[in-house]
Amino acid sequence: MKVLGIIAEYNPFHKGHAYQIKTLKEKVQADYVVAAMSGNFVQRGAPALMEKYSRAQMALRCGIDLVLELPTPYATASAEYFARGGVALLEGTGIVTHLGFGIEASHFGTLQELADILTQQPELFQHTLQQGLKQGLSFPAARFQAITACLGQRGAFPLDALRQILGSPNNILAVEYLKALSRCRSKMVPCPLQRQGQPYHGTALGQEYPSASAIRAAILNPDSHMLREGLQDPPGLAALKGAMPEAAYSILEGYPHPFLQEDDFSPLLHYKLLTEPASQLSLYADVSPDFARRMEKEASRFLSWSQFCSHLKCKNITYTRLSRMFLHIVLSLYAESQQNCPEPAYLRVLGFCKEAAPLLTAIKFKGKLPAVTSPSAINALTDSARRRLADDIKASGLYRVGLSSKGDSQLKNDYQQPMLRL
Q1: Which residue stretches of 63-186 are H helix?
Q2: Nearest-angstrom CA–CA distance, 143 and 129
Q3: pLDDT tens digits for range 324-350
Q4: How far apart are CA 405 and CA 144, in angstroms?
Q5: Which of 343, 310, 342, 344 lies closest to 326, judged by CA?
Q6: Is residue 226 pLDDT above 50, yes or no?
């Protein structure tokens, strides 16, 4: 049995995702497709536009056979930990044979070469990296210099091309997926696919495959989107009909809750910044002691989550990294727990297609991790697994707080929400 695994956010699901699933499934000749999907919070340090079960339903109606939840510490982490968690989760099923992912580089071999350098970290890499850090370069700049030195030793490689490759979120993730496969000695076969349509951060809808960023922008900021597109009337959700598969669009159109963004959690973040000293803030994932002191000093200037990100961002700390810090603070996700994050200890099943029921049977016999179909099974897990599942349940509770701040109290908690069966 061939099973294709995909690590995704589907925030929300669009035609590019459907193209990826269909194309890779045909290429691999896979019998089934399994998705490791982020829950209610995503890697860029923000709430998902829609809660996880609605996004899982989109995926199941558009080509995915089984959706597993990527645990919160991985789903909200940097590319390295995000990829590591996703690969380990799919590896834990015991049945995924191929790993599919999108790339923007024209030569996959270059990404594999970069992954090899970062995994093996030869002496030249380590020496050049340390020299760059001593010269005052930021870690990304020093690492780029070290990679360049290693590639130069192996043969000429244009610096502009390397910058372009490492400037793409999809390429960065691809390198991290390859590193993670090597790290856990996985037998999963990497299956890259050239990204179609807009780049990852593209914000225009007038493309055959608009990005998730474009779709979110049209939903959350319809007025600014109207100005960019030169439209006289706000496009509304109807403008998204051509950007999404029909089944996914119908779920979006009938979504019964407000769409969330990071500013909906501004009061919670502001409260933490006002009540916790720098010594406490520095304990959260991604927050250094120096930056914790800066946040404490500037807390009086706080107006909103997004405003504070814009206020604090600088040359070496991007908006996304700041937003991820803020999310970890609100989630009380500590650096120690993330840095020492063990491999996933369970497979949280959000939903599956009935025709793919044999997948669950296969996981039961071949899987390296127990399948959890309801949080009520938490007592059957190990202590470590219970703590991790508790993090996911807490994150879902926080998402409900964001909805309640907008007047919605209808979302069921994780104990009340049954697993999807389509």
Answers
A1: 72-75, 79-92, 108-120, 123-134, 139-154, 159-166, 169-183
A2: 6
A3: 999 999 999 998 776 666 689 999 999
A4: 43
A5: 310
A6: no
